[in-house]
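Request: Have a read of the protein record below and say how the chain folds.
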Amino acid sequence: MPRTSVIVPMFNTASTVERALRSVLSQSDPDLELVAVDDGSTDDTPTLLQAVHDERLRVVTHAANQGISAARNTALRAAVGDFVAFLDADDAWEPDFLLRMHAARGDADAAICGRTVVLPDGTERNAHSPRLGSMSGDIAASRMMTGEITPFPWDKVIRRSAFAGVWYPEEVHRFEDQVVGVIALSRTRSVVSIPDALTRYHVGGGTLTWGRVPKISEAESALAHLETSLGEWLDDPRRRSAFRVCRTLFLMLTAQSAMRSGDDAAAAEVLAGCRRRIDLPMLASTLRRRPVFGVGALILKTMPGVYRRLFTAYVKRQYALS
């Protein structure tokens, strides 16, 4: 049985999949299986997969495209490793990602690392979760809801048992990464977060889910799935407060995507809906736990024009996008 099952979903990713697969199969820790799910690709992705001759690679094929959540669920059902790690087909790991993650993890059930962000203009910068060090799984899950642990699946190694009975909601098409990450971390005993940039995250307009008008129902469905899955775990007042912060952040992100969509009329409707849904308990929890986000939510609710200008400047500075 391999120590780590690496899950790579792919759909029409011929231009990047070789880089992703190579970064996994060339890991300095070879004790892995690579479960690649071809989610009904119509480009050269199947041909490229057939050209890889490595006994650690297992390819599962969907006859038709079902979406990234379905692809990850298929891979989770097939995985047999003690730990699970995810990688998107347009990103890559550093050669010692697994070796250093397991070394940092020690006896913990999960490890989280930093990332190198590769911007559209080719420049790079490093980033990591605001919360570093060792913590309980309960704390890690709460910090993920408040944005202090990254929402990504590809900068983490998590014990596979944490995913028992946990699946990506296939009807939810946004925020599902963070939702499942919170659920899985809540089921671990201990987590270690390190700043080391061990994964390479390639940013583009599509990567940031911009270019379309989002639906508020996507955020609401993700939150409903999270709340139902966590159940009594949320009875603790501190965790309920973190959930309110999560709801605030999801609405802020929805508003931001609407601002980037280019459809002013539809975006205005989404913005109005997000502003209505940000209530006083959410603002209070967010201001107390994440003051900068709380101020941002307050500006969005009361001065959306100012919020748009601030957000536009932030995107230009952080992601080199106009």
Notes: The longest strand covers residues 190-202. Residues 237-259 form the longest helix (23 residues).
